[in-house]
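step: validate -> pass
step: tokenize input -> pass
step: predict -> running
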Amino acid sequence: MTGSIQLRLRGVNWEQLAESLWNDGYALTPALLSASECGELVKLYEENSNFRSRIIMARLGFGRGEYKYFKYPLPRIVAELRKGAYPRLAAMANHWAKEIGVPGFPTSHASFLKICKKAGQHKPTPLLLKYEVGDYNCLHQDLYGEVAFPFQMTFFLSRSETDYSGGEFVLVEQRPRMQSRVMVVTAQQGQAVIFPTRHRPVRGTRGVYKTNLRHGVSPLRSGMRLTLGIIFHDAK
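step: predict -> pass
step: emit ->
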């Protein structure tokens, strides 16, 4: 894979991803990270100087496995992905905001982080997650304060069916007066799934309404699975 992160992001068909997000509730990007870049990020997990905190999921009832939140300054790749993807996703977020009648979002990530800071949210939220055999992540939403960006991304750093098996990414959509809808996502190394942080608009016979979404990871059957989570709002 050649070219900078910014060039790769520029080459993505964002209109197609926006359509997938609107119709399906999630979108899968082409591979945006090379195998070597995924390997670099995996190696970072053991370097504690890169992180502000480590969470053992079982201690908090979140599931099994662990994850670490990066500290500022973020590693170059992580910072470029967060900064570069934000303006494209902000355009989608503003379309969704207009549909449901709520305020929109600034077009630059730096401006959005200023809004987070005013709300007392100043801790970085990008993270690396590690799962081993039997580990899983309960359904949840990544909300860290009153300010939240409506999309986030999970990058798959390990190779499905080579480095691990099981560990599928799961989205559950709670629809008003209807049974919940389950979506299971599998991806190749370097790809990212884009999905709603909290809810999404759906066009029905009586206009647009909101559905609530939570995400998680099914139990790992073998190997080890690492992912990079890009969350665009900061935490308190």
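step: describe -> The longest helix spans residues 76-100.
step: cleanup -> pass
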